[in-house]
Amino acid sequence: MAASLRNQYQTATSSPELVYFRQATWRLYQPVASVLWQAFGQEHRLRPGLTFTPFANAVRCNAHCAFCSEELVRHEGHQLTAKRLIDDYPAYFQRLRAVLLPFRGFALGLSLSGLEATAEPRWLRGLLACLSGLEAEGVVFDEKVLYTNGSGLATEPSLVPALHGFGLSRLELSRCHDDEDVNQRIMRFNRNQPIWRNAVYEATVRGLHEQLAVKNSCILTQTGIATLSDVERYLAWARGMGVRQVVFRELSRLEGSYLPNVFTDWIELNRVPIEPLLTAVAPTLEAIRPGWQYAGSTFGYYYYNEHFRWQDLEVIFETSSYPALQAANATGVLQKLILHSDGTLSGDWDPDSRVLSRVPAPSLDYYPSA
Question: What is the mean pLDDT of residues 243-263?
Fold first, then answer.
């Protein structure tokens, strides 16, 4: 099984082997040996290839996706980072330096995510400048990915060359449907965001290709893209914008790991499992749907991907499990580093879980619940 720092890739050579991959999914991931690392006065076990996320939360998110993971509440209690805004940028960037310098020389993947990083261009430019300075001091990012709904790229196109100059590996651009009205029912952009309109979205995407690698990300939902004919129509639309890589993601499997609320209810009601889609594309290796080619499978510590070619596009179907993610975290090996907007560095999306370093941050304020 071929392995990278972050996952393992294998190509099924027989139909029974492909069935086995699909049944076992992320359970086939073979953890690599952890690395002992001194930071903040303690020894930590790090997973080679772990990613670092400076949680983007300078302003409220400008979309209100019906599946938002930041609205999920764990049974044991969960402090939502999304409820705290960053309102002192110099203090935040000083803290960012303090938490990353101890990891100089350890290769990190940079995952720019959280809420919507492009919603506050001044903060994002400051973030890129701070991270570039840290690279000059020996902090190593071997991959840099921005997960975005594209809103700020439409209203502040100067962000595109800034991201290019930073050396962004790719931009994962979220869009849940090729029809703007259907997409709006799922992603629920603020109406003052031009990106909700297809004409703006399409023009924005076409303008990205000269400077950034673009990967379209589509969450599968009963409300939106649910069938193979939906998938192929979406792919034709993406191809028309010059996109050459698309991932279709199943809503992450919760399996009772979060308290019921309107978001978990929506997720379970709208879930589209990938298994029927995989069967429709490739019931066996000998009977693959015309126009499609199986390329291989990826095993991560909490996700499974199946890779195909459709015309000249790379197409990925992905499924993932929150319980598998939490089980990996429970091993004591740090799988991820997250700088939360209250100044806490933790190994979990919960700022009160697996804390590595915490400082008082009086300038980082809560906003009231809606």
Answer: 84
